[in-house]
Amino acid sequence: PMVDSWFLMGSPGPVISILAAYLLFVLKIGPKIMENRPAFQLKKTIVLYNASQVLFSIWLASL
């Protein structure tokens, strides 16, 4: 087919490998690394991000 030359589209192997690596990190490695660390304080960052999303949405809707 036409998409065989596209990146990661030749076979399911690369996509399955990426998915497996992601799940391994999220479910096993990440929690092990973070078990003795304090949680990140992201309130100000999240408020700034949300405000920028609102402003961008208002600008986009006004076009």
Automatic annotation (TrEMBL):
Coarsely, its chief localization is membrane
Subcellular localization(s) per the UniProt record: Membrane
Q: Choose any GO biological process term that the UniProt entry carries and state it.
A: fatty acid elongation, monounsaturated fatty acid
Membrane topology type: Multi-pass membrane protein
List the catalysed reactions: a very-long-chain acyl-CoA + malonyl-CoA + H(+) = a very-long-chain 3-oxoacyl-CoA + CO2 + CoA
Transmembrane spans: 6-25
Enzyme category, top tier = transferase
| Keywords tagged on the record | Fatty acid biosynthesis, Fatty acid metabolism, Lipid biosynthesis, Lipid metabolism, Membrane, Transferase, Transmembrane, Transmembrane helix
Q: InterPro entries per the record?
A: ELO_fam
State its Enzyme Commission number(s): 2.3.1.199
One of its Pfam families is ELO
Molecular functions (GO terms): fatty acid elongase activity
Q: Does the keyword Transcription apply?
A: no
Q: Which GO terms describe its cellular component?
A: endoplasmic reticulum membrane
Report the family membership: Belongs to the ELO family.
> Which PANTHER family does the annotation name?
ELONGATION OF VERY LONG CHAIN FATTY ACIDS PROTEIN, FATTY ACID ACYL TRANSFERASE-RELATED
Could you tell me what this protein is called?
Answer: Elongation of very long chain fatty acids protein
User: Highest lineage ranks of the organism?
Assistant: Eukaryota, Metazoa, Ecdysozoa, Arthropoda, Hexapoda
